[in-house]
Structure prediction request, 458 residues.
Amino acid sequence: MATDLTRYRNIGIFAHVDAGKTTTTERILKLTGKIHKIGEVHDGAATTDFMDQEQERGITIQSAATTCFWKDHRLNIIDTPGHVDFTIEVYRSLKVLDGGVGVFCGSGGVEPQSETNWRYANESEVARLIFVNKLDRLGADFYRVVDQVRNVLAANPLVMTLPIGREDDFVGVVDVLTKKAYVWDDSGLPENYEVVDVPADMVDDVESYHEQLIEAAVEMDDDLMMEYMEGEMPSIEDVKRCIREGTRTMHFFPTFCGSAFKNKGIQLVLDAVVDYLPSPTEVDPQPLTDEEGEPTGEVAKVDVSEPLRALAFKIMDDRFGALTFIRVYSGMMKKGDTILNSATGKTERIGRMVEMHADDRTEIDVAQAGDIFACIGMKNVQTGHTLCSTDSPCTLEAMVFPDPVISIAVAPKDKGGSEKMGIAIGKMIAEDPSFRVETDEDSGETILKGMGELHLDI
Prediction:
């Protein structure tokens, strides 16, 4: 059964450490009905932080892939780490995403890691929304962060919501497009809000931002622009269509505000993911390359009837065995199929296929163009390998990994441990290609190289 690909959104949520990215993801999962009690990061119970080390440290290390649904759309969400040592994970995730949400802290603003991730996302041409979070925090200032996005990231934020109240008095947001105010009560429940008129002291501000919004939107459509210049107001549908186009082409980045922890403002971000971020069919298709990595001029068309073209973008071990996370670009993959790994020239039989929900999983029998899922028990597949149909071999554009920045010597605790250590290091390299291993010729020590101390520690 082919699914309507226009209803797919493959998105990443990325940010600086502590901007509230995992909490934002948790809230999205709660709202979309995937989890019943929200896990808090400071309890070590967040759903997307599911490795033991992550729950202990309260930061997200591996980008967990989670599938959920909102307004008849299927969202595949990749939660990416914000710590600089794990930049590889962000880099790797961006390769398989069609859109993203950049989360910024209302008081911290644009921090160094946000700049790095933003630059990567620009290079990967990933359309994004911006969510300015933690507006209930002391010193939080939405307008200052919007200026930083403009000045530090040289991006063009399109303000879609304005905060009502500041810090402790932050109670909700105004939707600039519809000029409606969303006010939450003190229960902390996301569904407990009222839609009311804009507060009197904000009417002028809202009017001015509304005008800026309409002007930016109609620039995407010459006919609408002419009508607008002649004094005709475009319909909300037309404005949304233009915002979608401007977001897809990265002319601007729709910018929202709220507090994920206090459950305020997240619904509007989810609506925007559906309304403005591109589906798999609206982004440029992945280029195919020859064995040397040179582009052949062909692309992986996002179409179920095409031959299979898929990328293994992450490998990890968990309590269920080795998981290979796969993004399908063309064709379909069915349980029991025999497929070709073009990197090794060997075939693999597809065993169990699962749709991931952070730590849970649902067994599936088929995945198609646009899907992100995990396969259990693949033998010779590494991160970055292309999987394709046996009668139509191809190679997808390779993932480029940054060079390691730090190295340490490692040794087993005792003689018997060296074989175990060898196996463990082999697994680490399969899971994370930014690790390198060398043997020091003089001392005979094993040298591990990685992206930072925290990276090697884990």
Notes: The chain has three domains: 5-282, 287-396, 406-457. The chain has a mean pLDDT of 81. The domain at 287-396 is CATH 2.40.30.10 (Elongation Factor Tu (Ef-tu); domain 3).
